[in-house]
């Protein structure tokens, strides 16, 4: 039950097209992380990007680290496996 609640929160966060694009851009970065300066071109203002990134962090999908003036984002370590388990069929 707890895993279903967590997965539901993740899918709810990813249900927004801007958040899905941001998450996808971060997940597809070759080095596994993306600077906010690399992912801000999703068709909305910078404050709106920041809002959506915050929502993705709150849902447990992303982690962030400030380095100087930039913030770098990564997909949280267990997220992809957790999302995959949501679709696995039991018995």
UniProtKB/TrEMBL annotation:
Keywords: DNA-binding, Transcription, Transcription regulation
Record-given protein name: HTH arsR-type domain-containing protein
Species: Streptomyces daqingensis
PROSITE patterns linked to this entry: HTH_ARSR_2
InterPro entries for the chain: ArsR-like_HTH, HTH_ArsR_DNA-bd_dom, HTH_MetalResp_TranReg, WH-like_DNA-bd_sf, WH_DNA-bd_sf
SMART domains: HTH_ARSR
Residue ranges constituting the HTH arsR-type domain according to the UniProt record: 1-91
């Amino acid at each position: 039950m707890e895993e279903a609640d967590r997965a539901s929160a993740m899918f709810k966060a990813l249900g927004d097209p801007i958040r899905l694009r941001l998450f996808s851009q971060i997940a597809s970065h070759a080095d596994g992380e993306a600077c906010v300066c690399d992912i801000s071109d999703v068709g909305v203002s910078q404050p709106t990007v920041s809002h959506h990134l915050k929502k993705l962090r709150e849902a447990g999908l992303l982690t962030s680290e400030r380095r100087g003036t930039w913030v770098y984002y990564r997909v949280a370590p267990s997220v992809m496996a957790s999302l995959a388990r949501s679709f696995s069929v039991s018995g």
